[in-house]
Task: inverse folding
């Protein structure tokens, strides 16, 4: 979504602490951000946790948002960082550690938002690398380099132009385009049978 | 050349400029390469729609909305962490901010107060301040706000001068760098979340 007057007004109301404005922002962006986080992490449970953490950051940081860049770009930038950090931690976490033993996170103060994790979420191997609840695309995504995966998914879930995606990624436009093209080509090759059916 | 000639020449020049403005713009080499990539991407990306991601659970959306309402009521919208994408505990963030503040103070003291001693001298009051802040309120956002206010007072007292205009940005930059280091030295560093 481009920065319309309505959106600016909405953000301004949220900055003033109007909870109904936040409701609208959640309705506008939660689904796409969730899909993006799910595709980057490969786990519904992780995507849910990260989505909550994302809105924690939005509530805290929105008062400093000044409309000089698109709100959507900012939201997806936070989502990208959260997913990156989550994947780093997952790499370092011993496999026996359960989800309840994860280090304290920024969203811990919001723990009451969360419902008890179900049995499937607690089972080991819920992360993308193990592909438990992943479809074919998810497993193919897991084998892409992170920058290619991020650009392809940013393009897929956001309404951003490549120029905006390049800004979010902190790369030149040509780099973002090349990564998207390489990533899509690899994905199609990996899913050739699936895609041609 | 008569006055009329000069008028005619000026008019011709104006017309030439106008015609020049009508010329078709030729894209540069980089733009052409970008265009080629865009076309190739456009031909491929529609195929991703065969793999829809699951929708967000409406119950989760409700929980998020309720959580936001609680957070807004608690007035936690006052301060946001600077930059950095990693999820770091409040204590770790305070420690990193304190470390950044100590570095800034050390540099400033070294620059402006030749006999004031080393950075270590500035750590003791800082540690006290941090401990006080941590005890007073566990809320991260409020703690950081208090810490920063306290540090500004300490700095003003030490230097006997007003705060340098660049302090905030130096402070934020150092905090972000320390956050990045704490998040590990991975190659895929986070991009800044600082609102524009």
Result:
């Amino acid at each position: 979504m481009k920065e319309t007057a309505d959106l600016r007004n909405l953000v301004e109301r949220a900055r003033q602490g109007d909870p109904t404005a936040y409701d609208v922002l959640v309705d506008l962006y939660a689904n796409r951000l969730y899909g993006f986080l799910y595709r980057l992490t490969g786990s519904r449970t992780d995507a849910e946790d990260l989505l909550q953490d994302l809105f924690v950051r939005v509530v805290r940081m929105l008062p400093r948002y000044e409309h000089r860049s698109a709100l959507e770009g900012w939201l997806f930038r936070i989502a990208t960082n959260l997913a990156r950090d989550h994947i780093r931690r997952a790499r370092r976490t011993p496999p026996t550690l359960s989800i309840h033993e994860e280090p304290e996170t920024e969203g811990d103060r919001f723990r009451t938002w969360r419902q008890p994790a179900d049995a499937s979420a607690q089972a080991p191997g819920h992360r993308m690398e193990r592909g438990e609840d992943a479809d074919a695309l998810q497993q193919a995504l897991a084998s892409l380099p992170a920058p290619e995966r991020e650009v392809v998914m940013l393009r897929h879930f956001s309404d951003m132009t490549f120029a905006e995606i390049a800004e979010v990624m902190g790369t030149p436009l040509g780099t973002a385009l090349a990564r998207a093209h390489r990533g899509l080509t690899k994905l199609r090759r990996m899913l050739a049978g699936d895609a041609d059916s | 050349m008569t006055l009329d000639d000069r008028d005619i020449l000026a008019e011709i020049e104006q017309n030439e400029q106008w015609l020049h403005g009508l010329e078709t713009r030729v894209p540069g080499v980089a733009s052409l390469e970008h265009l080629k990539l865009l076309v190739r991407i456009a031909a491929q990306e529609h195929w991703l729609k065969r793999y829809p991601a699951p929708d967000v659970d409406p119950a989760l959306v409700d929980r998020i909305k309720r959580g936001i309402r609680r957070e807004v009521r608690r007035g936690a919208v006052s301060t946001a962490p600077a930059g950095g994408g990693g999820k770091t505990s409040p204590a770790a963030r305070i420690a990193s901010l304190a470390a950044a503040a100590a570095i800034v103070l050390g540099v400033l003291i070294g620059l402006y107060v030749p006999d004031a001693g080393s950075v270590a001298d500035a750590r003791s009051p800082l540690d006290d301040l941090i401990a006080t802040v941590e005890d007073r309120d566990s809320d991260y956002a409020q703690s950081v706000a208090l810490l920063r206010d306290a540090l500004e007072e300490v700095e003003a007292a030490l230097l006997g001068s007003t705060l340098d205009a660049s302090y905030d940005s130096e402070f934020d930059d150092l905090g972000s760098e320390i956050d990045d280091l704490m998040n590990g030295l991975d190659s895929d560093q986070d991009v800044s979340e600082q609102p524009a």
Observations:
- The first helix of chain A runs from residue 5 to 15.
- Residues 96-133 of chain A have pLDDT under 50 and may be disordered.
